[in-house]
């Protein structure tokens, strides 16, 4: 299937001598708006920009201390580009390339354009997708956009466009950091208001050099931020900072995100107890409503007491909020009273005193960013859980899927379908069942009718664990995370009383030992449990599905939430004067004739050589072959010569791979080899990790090509032999 290209990407050496080559590019010479990418393959650094004066901009970059060390420039051009489009493509490239992780970006994180313009959705989303696929083809990036959209590295990247609400919060924080009379800043906001994004953005901003901050002309706020940043740099040239995250799972996730950001390090993300090691100029606390006091701490009692002793505090009267205040010159708390979910959380009164104290200021975030249904949905959930929805009111939103289920089996099936379609779809339940599978991996924790489910098999980064969509998460493994779809199971601990027309709590069915122990006031326990359900009902970006074990509660929910329809089963050659092996050339294999073992490419009987593309570091595990067919034509044109490296193990998810079909022949490829995008789904049992399903996905403009789904047993007939690096010719 032919496809008229909307975008062209051309590579040039990045040097003063090579500027003449750029003059031959009609877009560069004609002052067209375009996007460019400067890179250095050896040191894996890159810079992304846009311009209407390419030659002048390149000359300026060649005078820059860091950028003049880069070695290649890719010009991204299109007849569809205008100034708004190139600003948008530039911003998207910064966001996605930071998440892709191949290069460390030299870009600052301010000034990312986020504005509407003509045909942005209708045309330019497809233009950017083509830009990205062509960059995959050229080996500049490796993972697909769909894969990156669901990655935490992307979600928690500091390369974000801030909303007006977030920019105002940023300005408030920066002003108060310069105010010698202010020690504590409390940023309040409900679930999904962008507290974590703002915290990470601020953290990266304060660790960026002024010349790295790329300000645009879109808003007066950014000029003010630049001025404030200069003042902060003068007052604190290299501030010692930490991001405190109380929850172990979310802390692990943010450490991974920091690992991929230039200037940041996983060591900057710490637990509250690590505050005892040193004093900091600035401490940011994300999810600060989960800072703890000495109550129901379980195994953490010892660490808590040890930290109190190290800080000279009374363990019976202090809490982790006090640790932060003592160990920080300036403390910034990102806080939501409604997400305090257990008795060990610091009391609301602690934060009330903190906000009222001399030297404290408070700022509130209002805009809802996570849930596509926005603030009306957030307000509805609060009214629903507190029995304040008016009779006859049913919540609907055009861009949000919100349904109540009569069948748990249908809910589980729907979440599995959403997982296959868009990923990041998980089941979450109230803590209404003991964790039997923790000690017996064969046991089921949640058994309702013919549905058997297990709790999360890990407490650390469960959301991103292979096969987690087949398990059930709890508040402790999901708080702080984004999902595409959340399937919420209201357990036996929460019921509805038709006589009082209110939700009631059955403490005997609440099995979070540290969550309910020592609570004598039923109203206090009810508030914690309602906070739990409110929090988990605000996880889903695209939709939330609910099921209630209690018949009366389910009937109540059906009065105000659209009812899910009963499930019905559906059928389903470069010209080179002299080629030097592994210097400027790699071995070329004919996959139509190949029958040998790719595990040792060096001993093949027949070997030709082909020139490698400019700018690629040649390794002896690389080889070339020609890819036939249309199933990958968004990246690889039919008949294109491609560069691969032999499979090195590790995660392949989202990458384009060459697969050997051991027991079959790929009809399109007419050989035992096929090229597809790889995704695997795993579970862990007593024998270790094993695949439950592998998907080999096409990446084509032709929708008739289908994903090949392999069970664990079927996967034995396939073997990944190479990972796509880039096109050699097009």
TrEMBL record:
Keyword annotations from UniProtKB, A to Z: ATP-binding, Helicase, Hydrolase, Nucleotide-binding
Source organism, top-level taxon: Bacteria
Gene Ontology terms for molecular function: helicase activity
Protein name, entry field: DNA/RNA helicase domain-containing protein
Domain GIY-YIG intervals: 31-105
Protein's organism: Marinobacter shengliensis
Coiled-coil region(s): none
């Amino acid at each position: 299937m032919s496809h008229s290209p909307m975008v062209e990407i051309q590579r040039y050496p990045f040097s003063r001598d090579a500027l003449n080559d750029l003059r031959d590019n009609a877009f560069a010479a004609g002052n067209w708006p375009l996007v460019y990418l400067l890179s250095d393959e050896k040191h894996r650094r890159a810079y992304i920009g846009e311009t209407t004066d390419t030659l002048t901009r390149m000359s300026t970059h060649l005078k820059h201390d860091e950028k003049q060390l880069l070695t290649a420039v890719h010009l991204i051009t299109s007849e569809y580009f205008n100034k708004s489009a190139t600003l948008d493509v530039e911003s998207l490239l910064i966001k996605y390339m930071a998440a892709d992780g191949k290069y460390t970006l030299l870009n600052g994180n301010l000034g990312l354009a986020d504005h509407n313009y003509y045909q942005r959705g209708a045309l330019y989303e497809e233009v950017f997708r083509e830009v990205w696929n062509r960059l995959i083809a050229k080996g500049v990036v490796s993972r697909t956009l769909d894969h990156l959209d669901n990655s935490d590295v992307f979600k928690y990247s500091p390369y974000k466009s801030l909303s007006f609400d977030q920019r105002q919060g940023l300005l408030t924080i920066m002003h108060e950091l310069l105010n010698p009379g202010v020690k504590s800043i409390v940023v309040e906001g409900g679930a999904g208001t962008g507290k974590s994004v703002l915290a990470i953005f601020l953290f990266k901003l304060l660790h960026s050099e002024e010349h790295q901050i790329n300000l645009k002309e879109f808003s007066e706020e950014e000029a003010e931020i630049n001025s404030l940043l200069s003042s902060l740099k003068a007052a604190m040239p290299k501030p010692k900072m930490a991001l405190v995250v109380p929850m172990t799972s979310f802390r692990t996730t943010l450490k991974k995100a920091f690992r991929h950001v230039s200037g940041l390090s996983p060591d900057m993300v710490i637990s509250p107890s690590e505050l005892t090691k040193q004093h900091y100029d600035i401490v940011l606390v994300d999810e600060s409503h989960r800072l703890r006091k000495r109550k129901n701490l379980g195994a953490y009692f010892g660490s808590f007491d040890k930290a109190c002793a190290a800080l000279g505090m009374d363990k019976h009267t202090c809490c982790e909020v006090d640790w932060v205040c003592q160990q920080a010159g300036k403390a910034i708390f990102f806080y939501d009273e409604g997400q305090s979910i257990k008795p060990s959380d610091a009391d609301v009164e602690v934060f009330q005193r903190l906000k009222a104290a001399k030297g404290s200021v408070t700022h509130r975030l209002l805009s809802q960013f996570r849930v596509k249904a926005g603030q009306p949905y957030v307000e509805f959930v609060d009214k629903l859980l507190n029995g304040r929805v008016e009779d006859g009111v049913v919540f609907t939103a055009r861009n949000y899927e919100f349904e109540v289920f009569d069948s748990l089996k249908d809910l589980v099936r729907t979440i599995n379908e959403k997982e296959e379609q868009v990923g990041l779809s998980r089941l979450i339940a109230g803590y209404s069942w003991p964790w039997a599978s923790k000690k017996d991996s064969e046991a089921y924790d949640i058994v309702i009718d013919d549905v058997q489910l297990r709790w999360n098999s890990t407490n650390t980064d469960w959301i991103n664990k292979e096969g987690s969509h087949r398990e059930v998460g709890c508040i402790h493994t999901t708080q702080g995370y984004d999902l595409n779809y959340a399937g919420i199971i209201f357990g036996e601990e929460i019921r509805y009383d038709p006589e009082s027309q209110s939700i009631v709590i059955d403490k005997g069915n609440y099995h979070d030992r540290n969550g309910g122990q020592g609570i004598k006031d039923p109203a206090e326990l009810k508030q914690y449990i309602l906070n739990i359900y409110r929090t988990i009902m605000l996880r889903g970006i695209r939709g939330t599905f609910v099921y209630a074990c209690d018949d009366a509660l389910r009937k109540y929910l059906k009065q105000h939430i659209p009812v899910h329809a009963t499930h019905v089963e559906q059928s389903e050659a470069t010209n080179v004067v002299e080629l030097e092996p592994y210097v400027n050339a790699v071995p070329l294999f004919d996959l139509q004739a190949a029958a040998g073992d790719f595990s040792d490419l060096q001993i093949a009987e027949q070997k030709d050589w082909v020139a490698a593309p400019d700018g690629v570091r040649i390794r002896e595990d690389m080889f070339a072959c020609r890819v036939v067919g249309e199933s990958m034509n968004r990246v690889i044109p039919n008949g294109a010569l491609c560069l691969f490296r032999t499979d090195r193990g590790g995660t392949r998810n989202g990458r384009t791979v060459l697969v050997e079909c051991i027991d079959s022949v790929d009809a399109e490829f007419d050989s035992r080899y096929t090229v597809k995008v790889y995704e695997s789904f795993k579970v862990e049992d007593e024998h270790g990790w094993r695949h439950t399903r592998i998907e080999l996905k096409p990446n084509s403009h032709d929708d008739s090509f289908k994903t090949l789904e392999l069970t664990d047993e079927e996967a034995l007939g396939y073997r990944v032999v190479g990972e796509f690096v880039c096109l050699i010719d097009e």
